[in-house]
Sequence to fold (127 residues):
Amino acid sequence: VTRFAKSTLFEVCAALLLFSNALCLGTQVELQSWKHEEMIQVNVIFQVTNFVYCLLFSAELILRAVAQSPRKFLLTGDWYWAWFDIMVVFFQILEIAYSLAAMRSNGGELFHFSMVGRLVRVARVLR
Fold:
């Protein structure tokens, strides 16, 4: 695990994951601006996609932490990026939990909360 998490292949995969997530977020925002009747089906697809990205980003964080030891990961080197990534994943988990709760109660605040979540995730690409 340690060797893989410190490899160039892992870094390339992580970068591709970030960029593909940014493309998906951009596509999602664009399609939601169209306000078509089919958006219910598209929203379900994006919900599943967001869940998969959340799992992948969580796995990336765990692999990085295990490779360096959690203490080193959180307190030395690029610790500020580690905490930033943790916050991004945390907000993504909150967004998913909120959207699941909103689907049950037909919540109208979902759009505003999901926009904040998307902005935080796009900020991760900028790092």
In short: The CA atoms of residues 26 and 118 lie 9 Å apart. DSSP finds six helices and no strands in the chain. The helical segments are 2-5, 8-34, 39-68, 70-75, 79-105, 110-126. The chain has a mean pLDDT of 82.
